[in-house]
Queue: 3 jobs
Job 1
Amino acid sequence: DSVYVGMVVHGNGIYIMEYIQDINNTETDTKDIYTSYDTEINLQPLPVENFMHYFYIIVFPYFLLFGTVGNCLSIVLMRRYSGSVWSTCGYMPFVCLIDLIKLYVECGNDWLKKLYNDEYNLSEQILDMSNSVCKVYSFVYHLIVQEKEWIMVAVAIETAIASKRPTLIYRMCSRERGNAIMLFISVMLISLNLHFFWTYGLVKPGDDPSINVYLYSNHVKGTVSHE
């Protein structure tokens, strides 16, 4: 059976579903469908879903605790030896700091999300604060994640030099050269990620002619015609 959706057009966007019309031309108000969906369909979580829920709540705080302690100790130790050993010890404090930020953003956010039964997402709350915050948050997070990967590439190159040409260690792996490499990586990634300031942002339905937002219940998903 075909199901047709009644939409209201505002500006250039199509984003409000008012009714559903079946093949017999019988119209049904979407409010009735939403109400019946919420009250009559009560899906019980599967055992694996319950397990994952409590796994997040119980285990993730330990990840946060041990990850915080381990990364903080690594930062202190690596900073202590960064002036007298290879530049690798200068790279690692930044890697540990980025890992600590990722730990709180990803693991911490997932823990809060499960703690509030998937009804609260801190990252989404931050992104929705304003258009400027959305751009800056996206830019900074992608920048630090990419920064870590490129720093690890530099560490891998130094390891190859140390194993293949150990006589070049003191000339190629100095602290000054390491600082110059990190500066180059930072400038390169900032330039590559500047597009976030004009390609990311909060878009309201109907504001952008290239975006059509269709909102409809899972009750009719798969049978809705967009024609």
Job 2
Amino acid sequence: LMAAASLLVGACVSVGGSIGFVGLVTPHIMRLIVGPDHKKLLPASLFAGAIFLMLTDLISRTIASPRELPIGVVTSLIGAVVFVMTFYKTRNRRGA
């Protein structure tokens, strides 16, 4: 089962490219919007991930027109900002 999953992931990454932070960023953003209920969070994260990827693709194509930035750069920049915000929000909640 693990070997099959690894082969499928490898095939997807070889076709689509490495898109960092999409699977990490969108659930955190959606948790702020939808709440911690996983029955709502999972479908919301699914659709938000697709929308996030389409928007970052649009940004990467238009920000340096006529050239195209790699989409991984844009997702990494947005992901870094989201994780810094999440870190400081969690840190302030704990009172550190």
Job 3
Amino acid sequence: MLTRTTLTRLYSTSYEPSRAISLRLNWLLRHGASENQLLVRPDGYVRVDDVRSCWSFRNTPPEVVDEFLSHVARGNSKYFNIKQDYDIRTGAPSWWIRTIWGHTIPHVDVSVKRIHSAEELPLVVFPAGLDEGTHAEHHGIFPDDDGLICLRSLPPQQEHTFSYGPGAYHPVCIYLDVAKMLDAGIQLFRNSRGHVLTTGDHNNVIHPWFFAKVEHVRLRRERIWRRAWKTTKRRSADIEHDTS
């Protein structure tokens, strides 16, 4: 969190930002968050407290980092945004920072839309394979390697066809209670591809009590034999071996 002393520097105009800190922070927020165990929101924001205490700034005096963050908070940077927003980990507002463009972290996109009401997401589902879905049903949905949980947003009329209709291929479909998640402070974001992204609760998980229902689907598959060139080549080799 920005200290009172740091915030008073917002009115100072004498500070010249450190290029070294800017470059290091830019790399950290765009590419190196996972290496530094930083949790990145789908819109690219990271807790300022986490940035200040991360390994990349271990040799930088805290007051120097605070000075640079104050410079950003004054709106003097074209590379970073900094703001106060709700933090589910503390249950109170915290300072957050992000770089404006150039993320290589999967699913992070500064243009994602923040969801504020359940009416914006009438149907959200987590489709999974049998093992993953069964584990999630009892223990919750855990994030991917990038720290984000990826869900699917569907029109209400697709609820039945998504699980049981032609082309359905998910043995387990977990439907989420969006209203309950938002009431608990879980932040949801929707991208242009219809994916709903979240960091989950304070433990980075969506627990089973946020599930509206869980459907297990028995899938029937019909294997169609396809004579590929590799198959033909393998058979020819077998024949040659058998006749030698």
